[in-house]
Write a structure and sequence with these properties.
This protein is 32% helix and 24% strand. The protein is of the alpha+beta class and 451 residues long. The strands form three sheets. It has an eight-stranded antiparallel sheet with strand order 12-9-11-10-14-15-13-16, with helices on both faces. Strands 3, 4, 5, 6, 7 and 8 form a six-stranded antiparallel sheet that branches. Strands 1-2 form a two-stranded parallel ribbon. A hairpin with a 2-residue loop joins strand 10 and strand 11. The chain starts with a helix and ends with a helix.
Length: 451
């Protein structure tokens, strides 16, 4: 056994003992003690017994021949990618933001431009070790005694346990990525072409809707050499290049983190796309970590909300990622343009799980193509709607079209709607087996009631 694995086992044993000891002395529910979070929902938290898992942030093993990596749950993808790329591999799905943790992406829903072939982050899991609320650590695989938790962990958001170690599939990489930007003017043809590229030989496929008659598909492939290289880590802004350059080249690392510098395009809300502001911030502060801190400060103090009210406007934060069956993608886009009005919209094709791999709490039809719509901004109106008005419009349309939405942001489902969408009958069976004492919050309580 390697020194890294021995140290992991020691940390795990100490943590499990501490949780077992705490189980007898605290009535407060368990909660993860993290300084940073990639959840975008307001919370009204009561007292919790906070677990410090910050020490579980190591890459334990990389097997390039076997095509997998062993990593601890609190490891960020930035740290993971930094260790896999020198070995000539990358995680099969790398979420777009550097600060997302591997365990967080498995307990939530992680996606990127390899998802058209590889699915979501949890589709790339081979095994995981989960710390249960009672202090036991269980080993979960697709075919062992804890297969129900293996397939039930995704979308559980820390209500069944915490992933301490995960084994993920990896993909071989080449030094560079060639990106083609294919422009479209008609949504129907745009989504039809998205299907074609998702069935082709590309290594990455995603897209952006800039407007009703302006869509771009980004088809990218690994290459051994590049005639030039673009750099979007400081002065230049990646999403603008989609309309300016038919073809582009990036290093594989710069491609993986192409969206992080400007948080896709949301840095505009901090005026960080202005050249002077970019220079004042400096390269090291142009990233999702900085923007998240500012966003949380603004959510706490409500500065932009107060400014909007001063102008006679009412605001609602609409930060959502939605998966819609490909057959209904054009209809859902028309709804977004008509009712919500947020632009740009990130588009990412997603392959449903392999036949037989039914992830209980995020039920996509196996081996079917979905389209992820990512839209993140504030909707302003002259009318004071009820709380969550625009988010509720989105949720109802998603349900009508047979889609599903991620739970990292504000949700307003009724209990019945939530139970129907997220298979709460299966969840209650998992909860009874793995958290019989109710030491962790329930999924509806945490993700909708914001406990």
């Amino acid at each position: 056994m390697t020194p890294d694995r021995l140290a992991h086992d020691r940390r795990r044993a100490e943590l499990a003992a501490a949780v077992r000891a705490g189980a007898a002395g605290s009535a407060a529910p368990l909660g993860l003690g993290k300084r940073n979070s990639n959840l975008f929902r307001d919370r009204h938290e009561g007292a919790k017994q906070r677990l410090d898992l910050s020490g579980f942030c190591h890459v334990l093993d990389i097997d390039t021949a076997g095509g997998w990596v062993d990593v601890e749950g609190l490891t960020t993808y930035e740290a993971l990618v930094a260790q896999t790329l020198p070995q000539g591999v990358m995680p099969a799905v790398v979420p777009q933001l550097k600060t997302i943790t591997v365990g967080g992406a498995a307990a939530g829903v992680g996606i990127e431009a390899t998802s058209f072939r590889c699915g979501l982050v949890h589709d790339t899991l081979l095994e995981l070790d989960v710390l249960l609320p009672g202090g036991e650590v269980v080993h979960c695989t697709p075919d062992n005694a804890h297969r129900d938790l293996f397939f039930g962990f995704a979308n559980s958001y820390g209500t069944l346990g915490y992933a301490l170690r995960l084994r993920l599939r990896t993909l071989p990489v080449k030094p560079y990525v060639r990106v083609e930007h294919v422009r479209h003017e008609l949504p129907g043809r745009f989504f039809g072409d998205l299907v074609t590229h998702s069935q082709g030989s590309a290594d990455f496929v995603d897209g952006v809707v800039f407007g009703p008659q302006q869509q771009v598909i980004n088809r990218a492939s690994f290459v051994d050499a590049a005639p030039w290289l673009s750099d979007y880590s400081f002065k230049h802004i990646y999403y603008r290049s989609l309309l300016d350059k038919p073809v582009d080249y990036l290093t594989v690392q710069d491609y993986i983190w192409r969206w992080d510098t400007d948080w896709f395009w949301c840095s505009k809300n901090l005026y960080a796309q202005h050249p002077l502001v970019r220079r004042l911030l400096g390269k090291n502060r142009l990233n999702s970590r900085t923007y998240t801190r500012v966003m949380r400060w603004n959510a706490r103090w409500g500065l932009t909300r107060r400014l909007a009210r001063w102008r006679g406007r009412f605001t609602e934060s609409v930060i959502q990622d939605i998966d819609i069956p490909i057959a209904s993608a054009s209809e859902f886009l028309a709804f977004l343009l008509r009712e919500i009005g947020i632009l740009p919209i990130w588009i990412c094709p997603v392959r449903g799980p392999a036949p037989g791999a039914q992830f209980a709490l995020y039920p996509l039809v196996p081996d079917s193509l979905y389209v992820n719509f990512g839209f993140w901004d504030v909707v302003e109106s002259a009318v004071a709607y009820e709380t969550g008005h625009f988010n509720r419009l989105v949720e109802r349309e998603v349900m009508r079209l047979g889609g599903i939405k991620s739970l990292y942001s504000d949700s307003f489902f009724t209990p019945d709607e939530f139970a129907q969408t997220y298979a709460m009958e299966r969840y209650q069976v998992l909860k009874a087996r793995y958290d019989p004492a109710g030491r962790m919050l329930g999924l509806y309580e945490k993700c909708v009631l914001r406990a």
